[in-house]
Every structure is written in structure tokens, then in C-alpha cells.
Design a protein that fits this description.
Blueprint (H helix, E strand, L loop, with lengths): L16 H15 L2 E2 L4 E2 H4 L2 E7 L2 E8 L7 H12 L12 E8 L16 E8 L7 H14 L4 E5 L7 H5 L7 E3 L3 E3 L1 E3 L2 E5 H4 L10 H14 L13 E7 L6 H9 L4 E6 L3 H16 L4 E6 L4 E2 L6 E2 L6 H8 L4 E4 L4 H8 L4 H4 L4 H22 L11
Parallel strand pairs: 4-5, 6-12, 6-13, 7-11, 7-12, 13-14, 14-17
Antiparallel strand pairs: 1-2, 3-4, 8-9, 10-11, 15-16
Helix pairs in contact: 4-13, 7-8
Subunit structure: Homodimer.
Family: Belongs to the Mrp/NBP35 ATP-binding proteins family.
InterPro entries: Mrp/NBP35_ATP-bd, NUBPL-like, P-loop_NTPase, YlxH/NBP35
Length: 391
């Protein structure tokens, strides 16, 4: 299905056959290149590959199904390296190579969805087996990283017991605009469209929620937020809605997984074995309701001594990798145990927004590309989504 057509459709003159042959070879070589986010060659991903030739320059275009803005330079370099030997001789000898990387984000096929969620192409749940593993910080930075890679992103704080989103995004005290008496317009923060129970609770609302009331509040935020109306959603669509799930594997998590079609789940864990046992429960819960587990993020993985720079795995090493292997999923990334990650989130400017070019932001962006690439793979393989029936 790989598409090899000329980049310059407006030049209708016929390309000579010998040049055409050489361009096809270029497309074939590009098709063998491995996509770093999935580990699969472009041909196997059925990625669109275009080649063309105009005035001494070979143009190539690759279109991936996940946001990958920061990967442009490395792809151009790899394509040049792979194609230069081919262009050493023949009619295109000495041609310049110009490469472009594009992305086109598809949507996860869903059954019946509430009107407000039709504007959302993919919903990614960020979950953990227990609290205290840095799940919310990961969810916020993952959303920011997807946006930094070029996607339009929303963030829903479904942690109704301890909604921390307003603190992390510096949006405390803000209230969403209400439309038509019952719809919320998401609050814009750092380029994200956000919604949290924290925006709706006031100082004097007790945060002690009974189960049914809590899942009612979550349901209301899910179905009554106008994701298509937030600032910056020009065509009224979000590529991804990241949902920061409450910690644990109880009723609320199941309700959510059954109410909406989740494109996939990211499980956050720390290297301690105990936390991993809890994370395994998370993996199993999503498997039960046929939600693909996109992968595991291992948080607080390595500590770097602020005095001497020595790194060591305080909480043990290799747990996330082992678990990913045992459960047929993947390790999306390992984040350091760094004071700055917590301080920046607590201060209302999470790491990806605070230091977009820093080492930690780069890790989050790689995790974002890998997670989004798994969403792409899962949506290509529709068989992965059986209908969920209400029991």
C-alpha cells in the first residue's frame, strides 16, 4: 500500500524512465528504514512515502501516523545517508536530497459516543496501580509533550479525589466558561485544553466524595465538556485527550473504560517491586476491558547526585523492562528521580513547558511519540477493538 508518487503533481511532463527507476529505488530504500518510535520498517507500517525530482533535487516525503515534529532533522539525516550511495551514479548522480517529515493523526474507531467527545480523535488513559508514583505529573508532561510534537491535545483530570491539575498548570482559581447552562468550555493552559474537578470545587466544598457521586462527576466532565470549543482547536478537533485516571483499579476506572472507547492506556510505575505488582493489576484491568496497553513509564528510575553527577537506581533497576516483557507490552521510557520534575509541576509550570529543550523534556517527548505510535498501530489493526458489552 506504500504510496510512491511524485511530490510535484503540478509538473505534468513525463519523468524519463531511467530517472523514474532510480526514484523508485530511492523509495524502496526509504521503505526499509526503521521508525524509531515503533521499531518497525516504514513499509511494514504502511507509511506513505513520496519521491519526486525537480531541477537537480530529489524530494522525499514520509508521512507517519503520530506527531513527530522534533524528529524531522534526524529523519532527514537518515534518509540522506541511506540514499546517497544510490545517487552516486546514474541519471540522478550528484542530485541534492531534500526530505520532509509529515504526520497525519487518525482516529480510534468508536461505537456510540457522547456528542461532546466526537471532536476527540483518540483518548489515552494514564493510570497507575497505586498512588504516589508520579502519575499526574507524567500525565501532564505527556500531554504537553504530545502538543510539543505538533498535536492538538486536551487533558482531563479524572482524579476526582485529589484533582491536582490546576496546581500543576498554574490555573488555580480559574473556572470554565459555561455554555447553554450545562456545557463547560475547557480551560486553556500551556497550549492544552484542560478540564478538572478542581475547577468546579470551591474552597468550602468537601472533597469527600462517595463512589457513585464521584463517578457521576467524572461522567459529567466527560460528556459535558465541549472539547471542540477550547481556544486553538481551529477545526474543532482534538488529536488526543489525555485522561489522568484516579490511582488504583476500582469502579471508577472500569466505569470510564466502559463509557468511552479508550485508544490505549499508559501505566506509570516506579521500580519498586511492590509498585510493579500494583502496576500489573492496572495492565490486567485494561486487558479485561479490551483496552490496548500502550506501554509502561518507569518513574523515579535513576537518581543523579546533585553534587557529583553520579547516577544510581535507588529503588532497584530493571523492573519495568521485566514487567513489559512478561506482559507483552513495552517500556516507553524511564524518568529520573529529579527534584526539578516535582518542583516544576508544583509550581504550575511542568518540565516540558518549563525546560522544553532539557533532558527530561526530551525523554517525555520520546515517550509521547512512542505512545502515540502505538495508538496509530492499534487503530490500523481494528481487530484489536472488540465491542464492549455492558454486563
Amino acid at each position: 500500500m506504500t504510496d510512491h508518487h511524485s511530490h510535484h503533481d503540478h509538473d505534468h511532463e513525463e519523468i524519463p524512465a531511467d530517472i523514474q527507476r532510480q526514484l523508485e529505488q530511492v523509495a524502496e530504500v526509504i521503505g526499509l528504514l526503521e521508525d524509531p518510535a515503533t521499531g518497525l520498517p516504514l513499509d511494514q507500517l504502511e507509511a506513505e512515502i513520496e519521491v519526486g525530482f525537480d531541477e537537480g533535487t530529489v524530494y522525499t516525503g514520509v508521512t507517519l501516523g503520530y506527531p513527530c515534529a522534533s524528529a524531522q532533522a534526524s529523519w532527514a539525516e537518515r534518509i540522506r545517508t541511506a540514499c546517497e550511495p544510490l545517487l552516486a551514479e546514474g541519471p540522478l548522480a550528484g542530485a541534492e536530497i531534500q526530505s520532509d517529515l509529515f504526520f497525519d493523526i487518525g482516529r480510534t474507531e468508536t461505537g456510540e459516543v457522547p456528542e461532546s467527545l466526537r471532536a476527540v480523535k483518540n483518548i489515552i488513559a494514564v493510570a497507575s496501580g497505586k498512588g504516589g508514583v508520579g502519575k499526574s505529573t507524567t500525565a501532564v508532561n505527556l500531554a504537553l509533550a504530545l502538543a510539543a510534537e505538533g498535536a492538538r491535545v486536551g487533558l482531563l483530570d479524572a482524579d476526582i479525589y485529589g484533582p491536582s491539575l490546576p496546581t500543576m498548570l498554574g490555573t488555580e482559581g480559574l473556572r470554565p466558561e459555561v455554555k447553554g447552562g450545562k456545557f463547560f468550555v475547557p480551560v486553556a493552559a500551556h497550549g492544552l485544553q484542560t478540564m478538572s474537578l478542581g475547577y468546579l470545587l470551591t474552597e468550602d466544598t468537601p472533597a469527600v466524595w462517595r463512589g457513585p457521586m464521584a463517578s457521576g462527576a467524572l461522567n459529567q466532565m466527560l460528556t459535558q465538556t465541549l472539547w471542540s470549543e477550547g481556544n486553538g482547536a481551529e477545526d474543532g478537533e482534538l488529536d488526543y485527550l489525555v485522561v489522568d485516571m484516579p490511582p488504583g483499579t476500582g469502579d471508577i476506572q472500569l466505569t470510564l473504560a466502559q463509557k468511552v472507547t479508550l485508544s490505549g492506556a499508559v501505566i506509570v510505575t516506579t521500580p519498586q517491586d511492590l509498585a510493579l505488582v500494583d502496576a500489573i493489576k492496572g495492565v490486567e484491568m485494561f486487558r479485561k476491558v479490551s483496552v490496548p496497553v500502550l506501554g509502561i513509564v518507569e518513574n523515579m528510575s535513576l537518581h543523579t547526585c546533585s553534587n557529583c553527577g553520579h547516577r544510581e537506581p535507588i529503588f532497584g533497576a530493571g523492573g519495568g523492562e521485566q514487567m513489559a516483557a512478561d506482559y507483552g507490552t513495552r517500556l516507553l521510557g524511564q524518568l529520573p528521580l529529579a527534584m526539578s520534575i516535582r518542583e516544576q509541576a508544583d509550581g504550575g509550570k511542568p518540565t516540558v513547558a518549563a525546560e522544553p529543550e532539557g533532558e527530561v523534556a526530551t525523554l517525555y517527548r520520546e515517550i509521547a511519540r512512542k505512545a502515540a505510535a502505538q495508538v496509530w498501530l492499534a487503530s490500523e489493526d481494528d481487530a484489536a477493538f472488540p465491542e464492549i458489552e455492558e454486563v
